[in-house]
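> example.struct
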C-alpha cells in the first residue's frame, strides 16, 4: 500500500511504541491495538515508531514484524505517519525489511546499524555507509539514521553523515543517541547547515531537556510510550523559549528517566512495560527471553517514579 503521508518529514515528538506479549510469549494483538490508540491519541505527536528497540524487534522474526506493521496501519495508519524500524545484521535482510515496510504503508524508515560492525567500524566506515546506500536504493521513503552511542562502536563519523546526506536526498534525519553532549550539539549545527538540512531527533532521554535546547528538531524515544504528553509539553516549551515551563515539565520527567534508564540499560523497555501495567494501560509486563521479569523491589521503584511524575491511569484505556 502507498504511504498515506507521502510528504512526511521526521520532526517533532515521535514516540516509539512497546509490543505487548501474552504469557506464552505470543504477540498480544488486542493489548497492542489499545496501546497504539493510547499513544496515538496524544495531542501534539507527529508520528509513531514501531519495530524498533522499544518493541523488542530483535526478538521478532520478519513475519512477526510484518504482522506488527499490519496491526499498526489498521489501528492508526490513516491518522499518523508510521516510522518502521529496519533492524538486521545483514544488508540483504535489511533491504528486504525496508521493502516490506514500504509495501505495508510505512511513511519513513528508521535504519539501525548492523551489530556485526561494532568491532572496528571506525576503521571501515564504508561498510556502514554501504549498508545505508543499499536501503536507500531499495525504497524512496525518507530515512532516519540511528546514531548509536560512542561506546557501542557504531557511531557514524560526522564526515560520513555529511557524505551520505549529500549523496542521498532520502536521508532526512538522525536519531541522535551518541551519548556525548558536545557531539550532539555539533550534529545539530553541522547537519542543520547542510544545503539539504538533516533534522536531529534526540533520543537522549536521560537528559532530554539539555539535548533539546541545542536546537533539535524533535525527539524519538521509547519513553514516549509512557509519557508522550510530557514529551510534547517539554518540546513545545523549549521551542517557544519558555525556560520556566520547560524546567517544570523536566522536573516531572526526571523521576521516570532515572528509573527507566538505570543500569542495566537493556531493561529500559521492560521497565516501561511495568509502568504501563501500574498505570492500567497494559494487562501484563511480559518480555521475551533473554530478558526477564523485573524483581518486585524494582517495580516498587517504578511505582514511586510514576507517583513523583504525577502520572494517572487512563480510565478509558484501563476499562477496555
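> example.seq
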Amino acid at each position: 500500500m502507498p504511504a498515506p503521508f507521502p510528504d512526511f518529514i521526521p520532526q517533532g515528538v515521535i514516540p516509539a511504541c512497546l509490543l505487548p506479549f501474552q504469557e506464552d510469549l505470543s504477540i498480544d494483538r488486542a493489548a497492542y491495538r489499545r496501546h497504539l490508540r493510547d499513544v496515538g491519541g496524544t495531542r501534539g505527536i507527529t508520528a509513531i515508531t514501531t519495530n524498533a528497540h522499544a518493541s523488542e524487534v530483535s526478538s521478532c522474526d520478519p513475519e512477526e514484524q510484518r504482522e506488527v506493521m499490519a496491526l499498526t496501519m489498521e489501528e492508526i495508519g490513516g491518522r499518523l505517519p508510521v516510522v518502521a524500524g529496519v533492524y538486521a545484521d545483514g544488508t540483504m535482510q535489511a533491504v528486504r525489511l525496508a521493502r516490506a515496510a514500504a509495501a505495508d504503508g510505512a511513511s519513513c524508515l528508521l535504519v539501525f546499524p548492523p551489530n556485526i560492525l561494532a568491532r572496528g567500524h571506525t576503521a571501515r566506515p564504508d561498510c556502514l555507509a554501504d549498508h545505508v546506500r543499499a536501503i536507500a536504493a531499495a525504497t524512496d521513503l525518507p530515512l532516519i539514521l540511528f546514531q548509536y552511542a560512542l561506546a557501542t562502536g557504531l557511531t557514524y563519523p560526522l564526515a560520513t553523515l555529511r557524505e551520505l546526506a549529500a549523496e542521498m536526498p532520502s536521508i532526512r534525519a538522525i536519531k541522535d543517541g551518541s551519548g556525548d553532549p558536545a557531539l550532539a550539539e555539533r550534529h545539530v549545527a553541522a547537519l542543520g547547515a547542510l544545503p539539504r538540512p538533516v533534522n536531529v531527533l534526540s533520543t537522549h532521554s536521560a537528559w532530554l531537556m539539555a539535548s533539546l535546547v541545542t536546537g533539535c528538531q524533535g525527539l524519538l524515544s521509547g519513553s514516549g510510550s509512557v509519557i508522550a504528553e510530557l514529551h510534547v509539553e517539554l518540546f513545545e516549551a523549549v521551542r517557544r523559549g519558555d525556560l520556566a515551563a520547560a524546567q517544570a515539565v523536566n522536573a516531572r520527567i526526571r523521576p521516570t528517566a532515572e528509573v527507566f534508564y538505570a543500569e542495566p540499560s537493556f531493561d529500559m523497555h521492560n521497565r516501561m512495560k511495568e509502568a504501563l501495567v501500574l498505570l492500567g494501560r497494559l494487562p501484563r509486563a511480559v518480555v521475551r527471553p533473554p530478558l526477564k521479569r523485573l524483581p518486585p523491589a524494582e517495580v516498587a521503584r517504578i511505582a514511586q517514579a510514576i507517583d513523583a511524575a504525577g502520572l494517572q491511569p487512563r480510565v478509558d484505556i484501563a476499562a477496555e
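> remarks
The chain has twelve helices and eight strands.
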